[in-house]
Structures are given as C-alpha cells and as structure tokens.
Amino acid sequence: MTQPTTIRRVPSPRPRLPEPLRTALTLAATDVPVLPLRVGKVPFGNCRTCADNACGGRPNMKSAGPCRCPGVCHAWAAATTDPAVLASPAWTTAWRRAAAIAYHPGGAGLTVVDLDDAAAVAWARKNLPATRAVETTRGEHWIYRGAMTSRNAVRPGVDIKSAMSYARYLGPGTGAMTALPDTVRALAVKEPPTVRPAPHAVAVPAPPGNGQCLHRTPAYLDRGIAMAEQRITAASSAVHATVYRTFLAVLSTHGRCGCLTDAHVARLFTAAQAKGETLRHCTDAWTNARTRLGL
To answer: Which residue has the higher pLDDT, 202 or 277?
Structure first.
C-alpha cells in the first residue's frame, strides 16, 4: 500500500530590504533617530493627513515635537529609532525612493558642525577642538557629543545642526568624538543687533532758506517718528518691506521740510536693526525711498 505523499510548503523568501533602510536600522539600533531623504537632500513632503501642516506643525516641515504620523512627513521630527516604524509599508516605500539617509543629531545627543568648504575646515582646525570628522562633498562634518540649539551661517561656510535639525549620514567618520565645547555653543548665541547711528550722508538736507518745518510742530514730528518706530517693531513678517514702507511714509511727510535730523533717522534705523535688519539694508531702504520721492 502506497504511503500518501506529504506536501511540504516552502516559505516564500522575504523581500530584501532597501540598502538605505538596512543602514538606517543599524543606526537606529544605536539610538540615532533616522529618516530618508529624497533627491536634493530634502525630506519627503507632507502626507495627506499632515498636508499644509494640518497636524499643527510649523512651516518648512519643522514641527514643535516628534511627528506621530505613520508617514515620513516632518523632516527632523519624523526621525525615529523604532524599527517597526522604519520598516512599515509607508516608510519602506520611502526608503526605496530615498537618495540619502538623514539623522536628527539633537535626538541622538549630538551636534554637527557643518563645514561647507576648505576655508571653513581650515578655520575649524585652527579654532575648534578635534573630534570625529566625516568627509562631505565639499567639506567636513565635525561631530561632538552633546546637543545644543541649531543655527545656520554662524560664520562663512559654517552651520550648526543639532536640535530641531537634520544632517546627512555619510558614514562613521574618523577620530574620537569629544564633548561639545563652549566655543561651539558660543557660535549659536545670537548677538543683539549692533545699533549704529545712521551715516550723516543718509540724512535729508534742508532746502535753502527752509531750515525748519513750517507745517509741522516738533511734537508732531516726534510723535510721527514714535509711530514709525512702533510700526517697525510690531512687524511679525515681511520686515524688510515694512521698513521700506515706513521710511517712505516718514520721508513723504517730512522729507522736504528739513526737519529730519540724524537723531531721527538713527531712531528709525535702531528700530529696524532690532528686528534683524542690517545697517546696509536700512541704508538701502532709506536711499530707495528717497529716490522714489525724488529727494
């Protein structure tokens, strides 16, 4: 009597993980939060749930905290160490399209000093303590142990990437990682704007024979300057445009009377510089306003 044939099922081979995902899982296992980047070194766009930051995130895909969305939609805030999330269907699709791997330095307790060119690298070698270095396309990433505030353009060719930021993963690098020094922390401290009096050349000269304002009292002028200062100070966006329009309004009222002095102009420049405008921007805005009015 023949024995019944036993049919043995051969398990289907598991799909091979994308290479970026395998590297990401290795990093995640060392408590480094990771996320995929698409072509151009930029994160994947917001998913439908978070489109137009409907989930409460801020513009430029920088939300206030970790992204809870199952997709890859909020840049540094989407970075995670959870292998279940990284290997989920939505994330796997992104990893297959990924052009690079990014990580959240601040989330890993690290700070990356991004040196964008040879001159920046030379400056770092002279001024910063040695630490782990990773070669980039044009310069180097210097990685320190410790997190801090991120800030771009702290000096020519130098950005700081740590909290609320992401950096490309370009390999383990070389050298021992050292503790974050105060010299690097100091780079991210935003100095208060330097307030300097407006150059005498930008003041509006009085027309011949008209040394004082004939149709406005000094009190009116002072109130007008105060209102102009307040308008600049209250600007929450489009500061440069607000500064220009305010300068234009002041000059249209008092520009031909000869009543504006360097002190008045300096007050306006001071208000603009307190909002982040540079002296050059202030001077350009003042000059452009004068030109438009034919002064």
So the answer is: 277
- For the stretch 176-189, pLDDT in tens is 999 999 999 988 87
Mean pLDDT score, 124-142 = 95
Indicate the SS3 state at residue 137: coil
Biggest alpha carbon–alpha carbon distance for the chain? 130
Provide φ and ψ at 179, rounded to 5°: -70, 145
What the block records as the tokens of 15 is 């799909």
Q: Greater confidence, 13 or 29?
A: 29
Amino acid letter, 160: I
In whole angstroms, how far apart are CA 7 and each of 1, 4, 10, 14, 51?
18, 9, 9, 21, 51
Backbone angles phi, psi at 84, to 5 degrees: -65, -35
Strands (E), the chain: 34-38, 42-43, 100-103, 110-115, 132-135, 140-145, 151-155, 158-161, 167-168
Tokens coding 192: 């208060």
| 132 SS3 class | strand
Q: CB within 8 A of 214, min separation 6: which ones?
A: 257
Nearest CA among 194, 219, 206, 292 for reference residue 256? 206
| Whole-angstrom distance, CA of residue 87 vs CA of residue 260 | 66
Q: Say which residues have a Cβ less than 8 Å from residue 19's Cβ, sequence separation at least 6.
A: none
Annotate 184-231 with DSSP letters as a single string.
HHHHT--PPPPP-PPPGGGSPPPPTT--S-SSS-HHHHHHHHHHHHHH
With a cut of 70, say whether residue 33 has pLDDT above it.
yes
For β-strands 42-43 and 132-135, DSSP reports them as: unpaired
